[in-house]
Amino acid sequence: MTRQIVSVVGGKDAAGTDTYESTNPARITEVVARVGLADAQAFADACRTAKEAQREWAKVPAPVRGRVIASIGRLVEANAEALAHLVTQEIGKPYAEALGEVREIVDTCDFFLGEGRRLYGQTVPSEMPDKKLFTFRNPVGVAAVITAGNFPVAVPSWYLVPALLCGNAVVWKPAEYAAASAHAMYQLFAAAGLPDGVLNIVFADGVQTFRGLELALEEGTVHKVGFTGSSEVGRKIGELTGRHLQAACLELGGKNPMVIMPDADLDLAVEGALFSGFGTAGQRCTSLGTVIVHESVHDEFVERFAQAVQNAEIGDPEQDVLAGPLLDQKFADRYEEYLTWIQPHHRVVSGNVGKIANESPRRDFTGDGGLYYHPVVVDGVKPTDQLFLEETFGPIVGVTTFETLDEAIELANLPGYGLSSSIYTTDARHAWKFREGISAGMVSVNNSTSGAEAHLPFGGNGKSGNGSRQSGIWVLDQFTRWQAMNWDHSGHLQKAQMDVVDIAPDMSFRL
What's the family (predicted)? Predict the structure, then answer.
């Protein structure tokens, strides 16, 4: 049954001014949800509503807010299968991966429920007598959170859970093509007892969202912006918030390298490259971009990797498959553009290229009328190639070679992204040298470029982000502001750096 979905602001449904149809990419004629889209003014109105609600929410003791987060975790856990099936239906993510994504919400709640009792400040010694110094974490106010749809519930939880725990109100704008999954997640959060207006969900297209965010920043009703999406849009968000003296939390794209050393366990490396490159059909910000393999093991690795890709199951995401369809038609269109980056000097080693269909099947699978594409491995990629330098959001992985680890690190850093990275080696010296030289915010040793645990800092540098981090205790700095307090009980004015007792040493002393 097709769902009818609209924004929810202040606990009330808000009718849209336009309609978007979210379809099942495995069967593109199946409409999962009809979504009412808001305009810029409605987004700005939601931010005003959130600002009013935030004042009272911030007064709720942090340990009590932590218990609300605990309730969210238990509600998600109790509804895990239903939510995962909805994610699979709406964006074509294999069910096993969708279930893991839902589990990540639970893990995030389990971590942050305790932070309600650990929003610690410090008692700091003063340089003067009868004076006490303190620090406190205060909520920022209203957070506007804009998320992509490739992880329609896990990634939003990285923003929503800590933001709410810290006493903020949130206006969340999810991707339209994942609206049903987002709306279901909103319902679970609301069922935990959040007061009306503390969490608001607004469905809108990119143009209206940007204009609405601009209005809200001008009005002073948004105090933090979180954005997950492309580097191109992230730059625009960063510029907009910068004009209002804010630093957005930006989690952007990646061109994630995997270095294969001559001493690597090649079976393990192939397994990691297969999941990194083609899990979620290569539509993760942490998906493998380029395998940088030592020349001495290049031929053997490529042969094994190509065979593994050819043997992998692509198909119905409700089944046990490596990958299902692409997320939405716009991603399929973009992916077909990436395929034009394959040049005559490249060698496709994985078989067919392009859409899986009757005229180009994958064994006996013909695509079932969905947005299914052949996974592609391109050997012979050069550092000057567009395929090497730019993010390719979809099931395509490049392969190049190196002679020395220094060269491999230079190649890994060359595209200018800095999200995730991986090295396969059995020599600890190689692992530590790679860690020191790589610009990525996340490093894996003998593991894939994809897969983050809920209590480690997640984020990137360069074209992958502005250095902000999500997850774990590190994200608290995104949703709180430090406040310093000094309390002088001496009974007279003591001036810092001026009225400090000086104990003079005898600098002429010698043994």
Answer: Belongs to the aldehyde dehydrogenase family.
Between CA 142 and CA 49 the distance in angstroms is: 10
The answer on 203 and 111 residing in a single domain is yes
Distance CA 145, CA 288 (A): 26
Q: Indicate if the pLDDT at residue 454 is higher than 90.
A: no
Same domain, 443 and 479: no
Average pLDDT over the chain, rounded to whole?
A: 96
Are residues 348 and 206 located together in one domain of the fold? no
Identify whether the C-beta of residue 202 lies closer than 8 Å to the C-beta of residue 16.
Answer: no
DSSP H/E element including 290? strand 288-294
Quickly list DSSP for 196-214: TTTEEE----HHHHHHHHH
Judge whether 251 counts as a catalytic residue.
yes
Same domain for 339 and 475, yes or no, is: no
Instruction: Considering the candidates 251, 271, 403, 436, report the single residue annotated as catalytic.
Output: 251
- Residues in a beta bridge with 173: 146
In the prediction, which pLDDT does 453 show?
85
Q: What range defines the domain where residue 11 resides?
A: 3-252+468-485
156/267 same-domain check:
no
Model confidence pLDDT, tens digit, residues 303-331: 999 999 999 999 999 999 999 999 999 99
In a domain, 388, yes or no: yes
CA atoms within 13 A on the CB side of 481: 12
Task: Break the chain down into helix, strand, coil percent, rounded to 5.
Answer: 40, 25, 40
- Same domain for 443 and 473? no
